[in-house]
């Protein structure tokens, strides 16, 4: 018999995340700064730098989270690849619906590009990435940057991205009770972000990445997800739509893996292996031309 998942209240999750104890590293310095209305964490290698950068966006279903929750991944990536990483904070739904979070990560992108010289980053070698809701925000941000022109990211690094509100509208998925992130919570996140029930005929531009019909001209993408998680179908569909639009796409589907396992089970061999593969893709896409 499947045991029902215990859902903690959103306020308690937010407090718990803020109290996270994070790892330390002797080879990466971590500082805090401001980018628009939100704070950022900047990870700077103390050793050799590649000259490339990563804008990273944390997950939390659009409802909670903090940049420091992905400290282990950011430290590892900065250290192994010599990247400067700017990890973004943003405002949460439902108190701050779209476009609040989108505008916050856009402000962080603009801050990173404006400060590229002092950060030691080549603005032409910056990737936008994230996990879960953060990966969805990253995908939408890449679309917005493409449409506005100017300096473009050289890649998008997406871990189990939350891309499509129409998944939340599929009530038959509720019974599956996906581990970590189920469709009831998914519907709560999308409804709070959109300010309306998910699955409407139309949504605002950049609110739902999977709703965009023209994906041509976007940068190369790395997408990974577990084959048993709620987002498996929408992530596969987005990868296929990118390929159909002529975008270079690398997918890494992990068998038997639930949502976000590379974060909360980061010391498991399968998680370490995935992160290593993802980092090698990142190394290649940020290499000097």
From TrEMBL:
The keyword Hydrolase applies. Pfam families: Abhydrolase_3 (PF07859). Residues 54-262 form the Alpha/beta hydrolase fold-3 domain. Coiled coil: none annotated. It comes from the Bacteria. One of its GO terms (molecular function) is hydrolase activity. Keywords: Hydrolase. Gene3D superfamilies: alpha/beta hydrolase (3.40.50.1820). This is Alpha/beta hydrolase. It comes from Microbacterium paludicola.
